[in-house]
Amino acid sequence: MSDDTRPMSDEPSAVFLSASFPQPGRAENFAHSDPAALADAVTAIARAVLQREARLICGGHPTITPLLLYVASEYGWRHQLIVYQSERFRDIVPDETWRLSRDGYGELRFTPTIGEIGEDLRVMRHEAFTAADYRGAVFIGGMEGIIDEYKLFSELQPGAHRFALSGPGGAAAELPSTVAPNVDLASRRYAAVALEIMRALGL
Q1: Count of domains in the chain?
Q2: Which CATH number belongs to the domain containing residue 59 in this structure?
């Protein structure tokens, strides 16, 4: 008997990934981060979500998006990644991100520029967080932006699980998570953590 508890739907399940590498000189107020661990965690979560034919949705980030491209291209997973990006940053989007779209491994969606950078980021996040009925979100590393995304996601998707990994450090290490059995978010065995999260989400 299958333990797949996903509801019947024409839309694939969706998981939001909020992740970034804390920047030296700005990260002193957050838990010490390990860049190698952060990359391992992002890769493990991406593999786990895409293996289950779910959609992985995120905001465009110059160091995270190439990792996702690598994971999707490694196994030939196409049209499951959706990357939201503000028009403000169109001219500095890395080529790896454009390849994500050109090679069919995902979709790049631009959101309008309306004012100051904070307003533009909020528009982008609002559009991303209302684009799907999310199973949950995973938060890894980061600084103030991770906290902002956590708060807005909680507001707009109150029924979705939130998993903040503490192992890689950064702002995510200090965020609360929704209660889920058998999920050790402090573990540094990221492939195992990703599997536990998928089970908690019914994927």
Answers
A1: 1
A2: 3.40.50
CB 5 within 8 A of CB 118: no
Region 117-142: mean pLDDT is: 94
Taking the C-alpha atoms of residue 48 and residue 30, their distance in angstroms, rounded to an integer, is 27
Tokens 């779910």 correspond to 54
* Greatest extent of the chain over all pairs of C-alpha atoms, in Å: 53
Using a cut of 0.85, tell me whether the model's pTM lies above it. yes
Give the C-alpha distances (Å, rounded to integers) separating 137 from 27, 28, 60, 106, 203.
Answer: 22, 25, 15, 18, 13
Give the domain range for residue 162: 14-200
Computed over every residue of the chain, the mean pLDDT equals 88
Report residue 144: phi and psi, to 5°.
Answer: -60, -35
